[in-house]
Amino acid sequence: xxxxxxxxxxxxxxxxxxxxxxxxxxxxxxxxxxxxxxxxxxxxxxxxxxxxxxxxxxxxxxxxxxxxxxxxxxxxxxxxxxxxxxxxxxxxxxxxxxxxxxxxxxxxxxxxxxxxxxxxxxxxxxxxxxxxxxxxxxxxxxxxxxxxxxxxxxxxxxxxxxxxxxxxxxxxxxxxxxxxxxxxxxxxxxxxxxxxxxxxxxxxxxxxxxxxxxxxxxxxxxxxxxxxxxxxxxxxxxxxxxxxx
Length: 245
Hints:
By secondary structure, this protein is α+β, with helices and mostly antiparallel strands. It has helices at residues 3-20, 22-33, 36-39, 44-49, 54-57, 80-90, 95-119, 129-132, 137-143, 145-164, 188-193, 202-216, and strands spanning 59-61, 66-69, 72-74, 170-174, 180-185, 220-226, 235-241. It has one domain: Muramoyl-pentapeptide Carboxypeptidase, domain 2 (2-Layer Sandwich), CATH 3.30.1380.20.
């Protein structure tokens, strides 16, 4: 077993341990992760696996009016902004152009956010970042169960911080086959724009494409194949490598 695979196996085991022992995490690890002296030294992902929430990890600077998490600046806004984006653009653009604009906005936003998170040096140790972001990662995920388990746990935790605890809904991933699939529960776009006869989550489709493309280091196309706004139990997105189209 090479060192890279052994490292993934060890880290995946530690991640799995924290997932399987919620009482230990809640009673012991979470207080440690949020202890004033220790929290300033720990990175975002280790704190999250120790049970700290996105709200506890956020940095707030009242003197400048800035808020961020692990070096990624954010602005808190109500979910109504999603509806207003669709509504305002729809008044000026044809439906297809409006959806394309929102899709591209989602790609750019998530590309920036993930790049900032993993490039800031505050989310994960420098030794971990190349294991998550590299041009071979999606091939390795499909070929090696150790890599798949490790990658899945890291991605799930990042999604918990960014999407679940950011109010965007809950993501699940299936990267075992082609096309790659992402499942979203509690989509804000579907909530505000449904009921509808067609999928409505253009902005989120762009976010998913930006997410995958940034981590894999290559562009992806994303389309929504099922949408809660049309009555589906959850939204489903399919990802295709642009080089394969």
